[in-house]
Amino acid sequence: MSLQKHAVQILSTYLAVLLGSLLILHIWPGEAGLWGTTALAVAGALLAWWFNRRLRLPTAIETTGLASAETRVIWGVSGIAIILVIQLIGTWLESLLFYAPAPTLAQETTALHSVPLYALALVWALPLLQEYAFRRVIFGNLASVTGVFGAALISGLLFALATDPSHWLTGTLVGIAYAYLYKQTGSVQTPLIAHIGVLALTLGYAIWN
Questions:
Q1: Model confidence pLDDT, tens digit, residues 11-44
Q2: Which of 10, 74, 96, 135 is the most buried (most CB within 10 A)?
Q3: SS3 assignment, position 61
Q4: How far apart, in whole angstroms, are the C-alpha atoms of residue 7 and residue 134?
Q5: What would the pLDDT profile of 66-88 be if each residue is shown by its tens digit?
Q6: Using CB atoms within 10 A of its CB, is residue 112 exposed (0-12), middle (13-18) or buried (19+)?
Q7: Which residues cross the membrane (predicted)?
Q8: Dihedral (CA of 71, 197, 176, 162) sign
Q9: The whole model's pTM is what?
Q10: Contact 176, 153 (CB under 8 A)
Q11: How many CB atoms within 10 Å of residue 114?
């Protein structure tokens, strides 16, 4: 499979899940909508995973080589702490520059109390789709055009706008950090480990507090 075809497939799948989830929740608010979005997100993640497995060509980030499995895991787990620190810095900067309130997870925790299986969408399916779309496709392909920093900045900003536009600065910094983790190991598995870990920790903390 070509890089272009892979990019179209991954981005189309991500957009279909994103827009489809909004439509489902609009038509069926409440538990029915959460069950529907969970099913759609999981199906989309599995489809994206299958598309991704079929890509044999390396992206610009992967051409320098793939780190060992142990290194990927170490960077991924370390990345959890890196991302949490960057989130704190981003939140502080937004408060200082824009007087923006800190982001909350009230909506997500309420949804999880209602439909616990929704965690599968939040903690696994959506991070997988986002890492494939924003890191492997956008960052991985733009790096050869704009350079690594330019690609990280663009993909980070797009990631922020797609996930939480009201906190675009924090989201952009986090997106750049995920791109850094990808660059360090040449594998999208590394930022995916960090992404899943961060969401699991923050959602777990929000639920229990």
A1: 999 999 999 999 999 999 999 999 999 999 999 9
A2: 135
A3: coil
A4: 10
A5: 999 999 999 999 999 999 999 99
A6: buried
A7: 7-28, 34-52, 73-99, 111-129, 141-161, 190-208
A8: positive
A9: 0.96
A10: yes
A11: 12
